[in-house]
Amino acid sequence: MNGENEDARGMITVSGSIMEVQNALVEDMFTSNSRTGYLLISYADPGENDMLNIGWDTLLIDQFGEVISLCSITKGTYVNATFSSVMTRSIPPQSNAYRIIAMVDTTSYRITTDRIVWVDTDNHFIYTGNPNDESEQIRFVISSATQIMDEDGKPLTDVDLKPGKMIRIKHASFQTASIPPQTTAFEIELLSS
User: Fold this and answer.
1) Tally of helices (H runs) and strands (E runs) in the chain
2) Residue 4: predicted pLDDT
3) Do 42 and 9 contact (CB within 8 A), yes or no?
4) What are the sequence ranges of the domains in the chain?
5) Does 109-190 match 12-102 at the fold level?
6) Considering the entire predicted model, what is its pTM?
7) Is the peptide bond before 92 cis (omega within 30 degrees of 0)?
8) Are 63 and 49 in contact (CB under 8 A)?
9) pLDDT per residue over 142-178, tens digit each?
């Protein structure tokens, strides 16, 4: 995504026990479950690489602030990383990542069509699924960027969303491991049936 003819990799900055690098190049990535694993990154210092351990507490987002899975970050992706200054003495050194912002080409998404179970307008959530079983529901976060419309594309608000109504939701492909799982809604279309 960065200039094809020039190396845009940044330098590491240190602030207390926190290290940061802008535009680090992902040289390698490993994950066994799409959420934990490691990234091998390089930055402006020639020959310098660090291995960032990605755990459940690591915030993984794209350049738009949307939560992503580790699988979305591939070799050749540029990332902005915040990580611990405590590093192993291995080659390459390893550190725990706190936040990774990946400059991904496109935001991946999924589409879910289901009935509304509950609308929490105070906290900007909408729930779909089985009204009698929380484990069979999904909680969608409605942000200021979420578009709500009818089938003809006319704008609506979250006040127009009522329990029992059928909706089609374009949402992030990654969900939290909570019950019910939570994800971000990009578009909500209120269906007439």
Assistant:
1) 0, 12
2) 45
3) yes
4) 12-102, 109-190
5) yes
6) 0.54
7) yes
8) no
9) 988 889 999 888 998 888 899 999 999 998 877 787 8
Residue 135 near residue 178, CB atoms below 8 Å:
no
The string of pLDDT tens digits covering residues 40-87 is 999 887 667 889 999 999 999 888 887 888 888 889 999 999 999 999
C-alpha to C-alpha distance for 32 and 128, rounded to whole angstroms: 29
| H-helix or E-strand spanning residue 102 | strand 94-102
170: left (phi over 0), alpha (psi -120 to 50) or beta: beta
For the segment(s) 12-102, the CATH number from 3.40.50.1980, 3.60.10.10, 1.40.20.10, 2.40.50.140 is 2.40.50.140
Cβ atoms of 70 and 86 within 8 Å: the answer is no
* The CATH number of the domain covering residues in 109-190: 2.40.50.140
CA 94 – CA 55 distance, rounded (Å): 13
User: HSE (CB half, 13 Å, CA atoms) of 139?
Assistant: 16
CA distance 36 to 169: 27
Region at 51 (left for phi over 0; alpha for psi -120 to 50; beta for the rest)? beta
Distance CA 105, CA 14 (A): 29
Structure tokens at 129: 């699924």
Whole-number Å distance between alpha carbons of 35 and 72: 10
**Distance between CA 109 and CA 116 in Å, rounded?**
20
